[in-house]
């Protein structure tokens, strides 16, 4: 062997070894177990549905005996299905082989698109059927048939929209530059000869054709299952029966799409496919949902609840996901955020004007000037449609402004809000919220069942006991200090506050951005509290007055405004997170104890409940505000003003604490 060869061998052995990028074997074993659990749970659920719809009766031993099904019903179908999804999602996040990641991402896209197409088929067919039933000519059978095939046409149109979202990233990758949405069709024809575009065109056409067929064929079996097994009424089987399946398909596929979008390289078109589909579906859902403010003029008064409101919230959620994924490296996210804010402002203004129109048309001098106003007889619009669309418009406007604004305050707020989604504390509090809410919900349902069994009527507002519960107070006393304890104390401990103060931002922007982030996350936490009453509405099929639920959530958000501000202040005066937590807890507990002080003093026979002392204690006690006023549907401006002033006071002190650093 020559000396040159020996030197080359030595050099090869002296070079550093490559880092092994293979996925650990145990991760793939866990992923395989997740796939098995997912398939087994799905098969169990399908078998249960088959057994319920077409039960196999066992032979009876003698005449007069009742028959019983011989097939076994598996109660573990749904737990296995959910467990399989969670395990597969973990596998997708740890998988290093991009081929397997893409396979699981495509599986998520398939489920998500199936949910979208099924919802389109469902809503379009029902809308066409109801529209035809307003005419005296067609029978119910004819209206059902025309609605079914009309829904198929609309579903095919939606499939073409999804195909456009699917193929757009590959066309842009083949072109080498950003192709506008309007010029996408011409570019598709131009670059169809490219292998990347041609192959994914074939895949998209095949998959979407199959999904359209499945969505079309899936409606009737699920409709029969909802009618015969779940016993849904005619008014509830679409909105709360079949609609829940559409949302289930979408929510199953969405996490896999996000994992695929975040694990692919930025220049890879595969990483942009999920966000492209999410953004386009979000835009369509938002447009249809927000147009609900004018459906009452078209004689469709039931569109707002639940369809319009649900589509609007779903659209805002998907648009927010798209913007957060694209905002860092694409101008499209910034453009969509800006138009989201414009759309929200327009809807909010129109809904406010629509709410004022009935009162304006009743003004005497206007009726004398315009005699035609006397014959309009406009119905009240503020409750519930006007309020809901003003709320939705405000949310859209805020989200658009939050993502597209280049103001220092908004940039810092986005940064701080994102930190809650990367911190374990945020997910711990979110999980604890669902657990505590489930416990309160189970106790509330037990009370409802007990009252029903005893033949007693449960008084309205039905949701008041769910929100007026001691556990929610205990949860507030623990959750808010946990979320605010690290907001500024961590900056003080790590020494990054001095670095932040050297940036071109003032104390007001720093304090308010940290407060807004913590308060917005707290609002999101409290919004999850409404999940279980909505599930009761779906399962129970009985409508209840939802306005006390909305006022209760408003009360929780308003009260948390002051408490979060207090937590931010205590976090700013210490470097220890535990100390900040204890101080905030002590402050909230002191205010909470005022309720017991008032209750103890009122037991005195000589006590005057209308005295200034009792009025003062009730005015500053948040228990009276949220649970004895807001939870019963009574919203008073003095309570809102008190908590806003309370929060502004603590924010003022926090700003002064930061300004005092200049004098040290």
Strand content: under 5%
Please tally the β strands and state the result.
0
Distance between the termini: 74 Å
Uncertain segments of ≥5 residues (pLDDT<50)?
A: 1-20, 56-70
Describe the structure.
The relative contact order is 0.05. The protein is mainly α. The longest helix is centred in the N-terminal third of the chain and has 36 residues. Helix 5 packs antiparallel against helix 9. It has 26 helices and no strands. The radius of gyration is 29 Å and the shape is globular.
Give the key terms:
664 residues; mainly alpha; 26 helices; 0% strand; globular
Topology:
Layout: H1 3-14, H2 25-53, H3 77-94, H4 98-133, H5 140-175, H6 184-190, H7 195-228, H8 237-263, H9 269-290, H10 304-326, H11 331-360, H12 364-369, H13 382-404, H14 408-422, H15 424-453, H16 464-467, H17 470-484, H18 489-494, H19 496-502, H20 507-527, H21 531-540, H22 547-572, H23 577-602, H24 612-620, H25 622-626, H26 637-659
Short account of what is shown:
With 664 residues, the chain is mainly alpha-helical.
């Amino acid at each position: 062997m020559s000396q040159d060869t020996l030197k080359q061998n030595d050099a090869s052995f002296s070079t550093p070894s490559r880092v092994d990028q293979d996925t650990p074997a145990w991760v793939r074993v866990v992923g395989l177990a997740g796939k098995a659990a997912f398939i087994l749970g799905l098969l169990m659920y399908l078998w249960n549905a088959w057994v319920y719809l077409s039960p196999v009766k066992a032979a009876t031993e003698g005449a007069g005996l009742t028959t019983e099904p011989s097939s076994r019903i598996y109660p573990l179908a749904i737990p296995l299905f959910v467990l399989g999804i969670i395990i597969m999602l973990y596998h997708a996040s740890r998988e290093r082989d991009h081929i397997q990641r893409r396979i699981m991402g495509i599986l998520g896209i398939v489920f998500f698109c199936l949910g979208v197409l099924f919802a389109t088929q469902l809503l379009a067919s029902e809308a066409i059927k109801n529209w035809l039933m307003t005419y005296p000519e067609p029978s119910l059978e004819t209206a059902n048939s025309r609605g079914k095939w009309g829904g198929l046409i609309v579903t095919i149109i939606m499939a073409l929209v999804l195909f456009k979202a699917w193929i757009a990233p590959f066309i842009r990758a083949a072109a080498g530059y950003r192709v506008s949405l309007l010029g996408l069709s011409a570019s598709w024809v131009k670059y169809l000869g490219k292998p990347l575009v041609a192959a994914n065109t074939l895949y998209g056409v095949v998959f979407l054709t199959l999904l359209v067929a499945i969505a079309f064929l899936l409606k009737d079996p699920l409709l029969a299952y909802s009618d015969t097994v779940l016993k849904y009424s005619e008014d509830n089987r679409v909105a709360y029966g079949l609609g829940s399946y559409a949302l289930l398909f979408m929510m199953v596929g969405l996490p896999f799409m996000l994992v695929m979008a975040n694990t692919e390289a930025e220049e890879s078109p595969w990483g942009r496919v999920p966000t492209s589909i999410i953004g386009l579906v979000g835009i369509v859902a938002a447009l249809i949902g927000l147009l609900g403010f004018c459906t009452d003029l078209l004689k469709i008064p039931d569109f707002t609840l639940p369809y319009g409101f649900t589509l609007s919230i779903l659209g805002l959620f998907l648009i927010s996901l798209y913007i957060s994924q694209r905002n860092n490296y694409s101008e499209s996210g910034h453009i969509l955020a800006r138009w989201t804010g414009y759309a929200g402002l327009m809807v909010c203004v129109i809904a406010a004007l629509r709410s004022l129109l009935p009162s304006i048309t009743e003004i005497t001098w206007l009726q004398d000037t315009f005699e035609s106003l006397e014959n309009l007889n406009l119905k009240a619009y503020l409750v519930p449609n006007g309020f809901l669309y003003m709320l939705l418009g405000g949310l859209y406007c805020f989200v658009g402004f939050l993502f597209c604004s280049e103001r220092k305050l908004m940039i810092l707020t986005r940064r701080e809000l994102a930190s809650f989604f990367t911190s374990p504390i945020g997910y711990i509090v979110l999980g604890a919220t669902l657990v505590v809410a489930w416990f309160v919900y189970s106790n509330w349902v037990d009370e409802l069942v007990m009252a029903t069994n005893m033949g007693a009527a449960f008084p309205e507002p039905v949701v008041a006991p769910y929100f007026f519960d001691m556990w929610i107070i205990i949860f507030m006393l623990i959750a808010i200090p946990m979320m605010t304890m690290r907001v500024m104390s961590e900056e003080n401990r790590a020494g990054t506050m001095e670095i932040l103060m050297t940036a071109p931002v003032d104390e007001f922007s720093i304090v308010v951005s940290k407060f807004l982030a913590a308060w917005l996350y707290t609002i999101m936490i409290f919004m999850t509290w409404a999940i279980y009453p909505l599930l009761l509405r779906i399962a129970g099929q009985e409508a209840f007055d939802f306005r006390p639920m909305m006022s209760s959530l408003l009360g929780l958000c308003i009260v948390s405004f002051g408490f979060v501000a207090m937590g931010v202040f205590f976090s700013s005066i210490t470097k220890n997170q535990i100390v900040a937590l204890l101080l905030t807890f002590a402050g909230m507990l002191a205010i909470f104890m005022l309720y017991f002080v008032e209750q103890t003093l009122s037991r005195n026979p000589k006590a005057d409940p209308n005295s200034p002392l009792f009025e003062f204690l009730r005015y500053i006690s948040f228990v009276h505000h949220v649970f004895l006023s807001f939870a019963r549907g009574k919203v008073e401006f003095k309570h809102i003003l008190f908590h806003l002033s309370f929060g502004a006071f603590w924010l003022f002190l926090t700003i002064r604490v930061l300004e005092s650093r200049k004098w040290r």
